[in-house]
Every structure is written in structure tokens, then in C-alpha cells.
Predict the structure.
Amino acid sequence: MIGYLLALAALIIIIVAMHMNSIWPTQSKKENTLVFSLFWGLMLGLIAPFLVTTFLEGGASAVYDLLRSKP
């Protein structure tokens, strides 16, 4: 349940960031720091622990199989 809520929050943040044109900073405009940090914090908080536990349980071959498998 928590994973679904975090995924929903990430999707909402993506929509807000695209609407505000604040996903990446450029020389002409600055990013919205709240949206930028929430988005990347959620992405790293959801994806990185999953990849680390997959690596610890099955090694590099398990991560490779995960990335190679069909959705």
C-alpha cells in the first residue's frame, strides 16, 4: 500500500514538474527546488533499495535478469 502511494505521489510530482517546466535546471531558468528534490528523492527511495536487495539476494545475474525481463 505504501509503495502505491509513493508511486502515485511520484506521478503527481512528474505532472506538476512538467506543467511548471521545472524538471531540469538550465542557464535561463532555475528549477523548482521542492519539486526537483521530491521527484528525485522518491525515485531514488523507490528504485535504489529494490535494486540493492535484488543484488544482495541473487547477485549481479539477478539484477541483469531483472533488467532484461519483459514487463
